[in-house]
Fold this sequence. Notes:
By secondary structure, the chain is mostly helical. It has 12 helices and 4 strands, in the order αααααααααβββαβαα. A hairpin with a 4-residue loop joins β1 (267-270) and β2.
Amino acid sequence: MADAVDKDSKTEEATEKKIRDTIEQGKLPHSKETALLTSFIAILVFTVFYAKDAVIDLGMFLSMFLEKPEAWPMDTETDVIALYKVVLLEVGRAVLSLLVLLTVAGVGASVFQNMPQFVGERIRPQLSRISVVQGWKRLFGVQGWVEFLKSLGKVGFAITVLVFTLSEDHRKLLAGMVTNPVAFGLVIRGIAVDILVAIVFVMGLIASVDLVWSRFHWKQDLRMSKQEVKDEFKQSEGDPIVKSRLRSLARDRARKRMMTAVPRATLIIANPTHFSIALRYVRDENSAPVVLAKGQDLVALKIREIAREHNIPVFEDVALARSMYKQVSVDNVIPSHFYQAVAELVRIVYSKKAERRQIS
């Protein structure tokens, strides 16, 4: 019941990260029927293009062996070993091409489905592989039943093909039995080709369905619940609460640094309550006024409060303050289109400083 509920909760498609992690673990969709199909194709290719010469050579050898048994003495152990080597060599020559084709077909089937890669996780001992419970689930789960039905279908198909083919070719088979070994071998080859063509055709249909099913089942197994998607997002992007806290701390540090810099300001531009911009201009330091701090509402009032404590002039200009607040950045010089307006204020500041020096 818990497994059913868990599967029902997996309503979301797998994320790119989960797919990537699954592939890195070597858990890829694999169709056994595709590999079986390529094996049958390899056998068919061998039977059509290579088996004729192999059958003729093997038939001639058997004919000679059966017609002239006296040419193969078996009086001693050495004679038996020599005969064994000759037979093994003849049979090996007949099946060598088939073994090469089967190997190429097996590798080709794997590459066609997924590029090969070494995954240590696949060979690491895991208790789940010897678990009775997990084995029971594999045998009697959805995938287990699918495999059982496919095997049942293949067995039924094989029996049907054999019965049909033998019913059609039994006369050829009987006629071949009374001929020489070479001719009989060619009869067997012809019957084998008929059987293999039928098998390859039907296995192609089965493999196509199985290939689609294996990928569909793989994607279904990778589906995630909404909570899993949220947890993965938190892991990859960071917990939103933590990130919000970090941003808040960063703003606090920036605000404290700005307030520390306000006493060095040359002047403050503000509207009555909402905005304040602290500027510093010293001819020997920068070619244009630099923004030391800017703030809105409570921060703006705090800037003005520090300015009063350090006798920094505050100029109230609603339009200029509002416009500058949107366009200037802390620790950068002001944009050029503010030069004229600010230069007038700086001139006033320096004029007042000069008057105070003259009075004193």
